[in-house]
Amino acid sequence: MPDVTERYRCDSCGNLTRFDVFERRRSRSFYHYSLGGDLEIEEEEVLEHEVEKVVCRWCGSAASVEKA
Q1: pLDDT at residue 55 above 70?
Q2: What pLDDT digit, counting tens, does each position of 11-48 carry?
Q3: Which residues have CB under 8 Å from 46's CB, separation 6+?
Q4: For a tag site, which of 5, 26, 54, 64 has the least CB within 10 Å?
């Protein structure tokens, strides 16, 4: 999972708050269905996680986004 203290910053426009994050994940999950058919995911283990691209929502730049 991504580190919650990790932040992004767009050097093009100064944005610190709005980004589209494209990521690839592989996980193992325990699905628990109620008798009524409602799904609750009770456990999830992330086996692999990779951020492929981060795009600024304000200016659309992907090349100018860096970890802050």
Answers
A1: yes
A2: 999 999 999 999 999 999 999 999 999 999 999 999 99
A3: 1, 25, 26, 27
A4: 5
DSSP, residue by residue, 27-39: EEEEEEE-TT--E
Q: Of all helices (H) and strands (E), which one includes residue 65?
A: strand 65-67
Partners of 21 in the β-ladder: 54
- Intra-chain end-to-end CA distance of the chain, in Å: 18
Q: Burial-class residue 10 by CB neighbours within 10 Å (0-12, 13-18, 19+).
A: buried
CA 21 to chain CA mean position, Å: 5
pTM beyond 0.85: no
